[in-house]
Amino acid sequence: MNQEKFKRRDFIGLVSKTSILGLAISPLATLADSTVPESKDSLPAEGHTFLTQPYLQHPGTDGMTIMWITARDAYSWVEYQEKGGTTKKAHAVTDGMVDANDRLHKVSLQELKPGTIYTYKVYAKEILSYEPYKITYGETIESSTYEFTTLALNPAEVSLLIMNDIHDRPQSIPQLMALNGNDPYDFVFFNGDIFDYQTDENQIIKNMINPCTTAFASTKPFMYVRGNHETRGKFARQLPAYFHNLDGGQYFSFTRGPVHFIALDTGEDKEDNHPVYAGLIDFDTYRKKQAIWLETQLKSKAYKKAKFKVVIMHIPHYHSGDGHGTLHCREVFGPLFNKYKIDLMICGHTHTYKVHPPEEGHQFPIIIGGGPKDGKRTLIKLKANERKLHLSMLADNGQEVGNYELSR
Ligand SMILES: [Fe+2]
């Protein structure tokens, strides 16, 4: 048997056998096996199987969103329980109809308790045929059991890991995550250019979701803002459906502990009328619209109240050349960042890691994570409590190549 196929079949067996013991897989345990499962290309043509393990999105104090993908159309649900509690079932309902007859599944658990550990399993019942007056089900498959913890109410601390510019190198995700060792963290943030350009679903599974679930994503959530490369390719318009950010959008804000985060979508790096886009993008209007939204966020109580104010976006508006994207971000976002005194900005894009201290133009440091080649990749660790924010940037050999600290 082909070795790659063998690995893939092993993985399917792991997640689909109902006899597997319901043991939670810790991030540490999953890190031990950094084998990235093969894509559905190597699957047998027939078969109702999971193409991904469940991955966590949109963490809340009272909710968590779970997504997964199956090879066949199915009706899907989640069974979950507070440790030691009774098992509950949840499925998604849209406009009165239960979500079904699809391969991409998303269930948002609601009314959870803050700061509480839950165990969960996902299920998928194949839909063999969907006639107007007769629906025929097939086999039901179920995942292993995993666990997650909901966000605490008003936590004193926050801790996250940031990756950027992976550029279709799936092995980088578990490798960079391994740099964190056993250090506790709340969630992971992807800051754009995880892909070179969007081709199809298979690429999303193989190069992002499966390496994420291998390393952490069935037990810890991740958030994601696009880089310029995610706006390219024939599948770019389908990409957002595979993720579920806060507010359901491509740009969003959230407070975690002492930090208010604002995540912006900086769009493409060239002019909208550049021939390679063939008239099919309008990022200038989009960035201007975001700037209006950004000012409402910068004026908000949550922003003013926060001890630390952090912006995460892919293209830095300084130190990334003089392309149109950089300059337009500088024009529409730059004055707002200075006026409302953000503390820190975290970016990618240039592929050259560096901590740029405050200077004329930006009155706050800009930290740029590197990538995507070996020796240039970074994992950024950000931790904050009421008194101190600490950022550490690790190169892929584990050495710290940048840091920044702010005290209150
Ligand atoms: Fe990039």
TrEMBL record:
Residues 53-150 form the Purple acid phosphatase N-terminal domain. The keyword Signal applies. Keywords: Signal. Residues 160-353 form the Calcineurin-like phosphoesterase domain. GO terms for molecular function: acid phosphatase activity; metal ion binding. It holds the Pfam family Metallophos. PANTHER family: ACID PHOSPHATASE RELATED, PURPLE ACID PHOSPHATASE. This is Purple acid Phosphatase, N-terminal domain. It comes from Pedobacter caeni.
